[in-house]
Amino acid sequence: MTRQNVQASIRQYRTSDAAEVGRRAGDATSGFPPIARQIKGFQAWYLIDSGNGTLTTITICDDESGIEESVDKAREWVGENAADLVEGSPTVTNGPIEAQS
Fold first, then answer.
1. For residues 77 and 54, is the Cβ–Cβ distance under 8 A?
2. What residue segments make up the domains of the chain, in order of their start?
3. If exposure means fewest CB atoms within 10 Å of the residue's CB, which of 25, 40, 48, 78 is most exposed?
């Protein structure tokens, strides 16, 4: 099934303290989704503990402008709330969702 125009952003963050990731995940879960929900076309946000001190987030929006806004909002949120935990800039991959099941 193809979903026309639906976009995803996958952001992978390297953390400075792998042990702190689990303790701080609640901060992200309660802090970022309310911001993301204000983005026009926002559909979903996921936080994944990717292991080895890596966190991955996935955001789904109706279109590219929503994804671009989510990337900007995530950058702001991380800078204000998790700068001490994140090393450098995340690896960001944005693009259309071509298929799902």
1. no
2. 1-62+83-90
3. 40
Residues 46-80 as b or e (16 or more Cβ within 10 Å = b): ebeeeeebbbbbebbbbeeebbebbbebbeebbee
Q: What is the DSSP string of 25-82?
A: HHHHHHHHHHHHTTSTTEEEEEEEEEETTEEEEEEEESSHHHHHHHHHHHHHHHHHHT
User: pTM score > 0.85 for this model?
Assistant: yes
Q: Which two tokens stand for residue 45?
A: 């946000």
The 10s digit of each residue's pLDDT in 37-52 is 999 999 999 999 888 8
Please tell me the class of the 1-62+83-90 domain. Answer: alpha beta
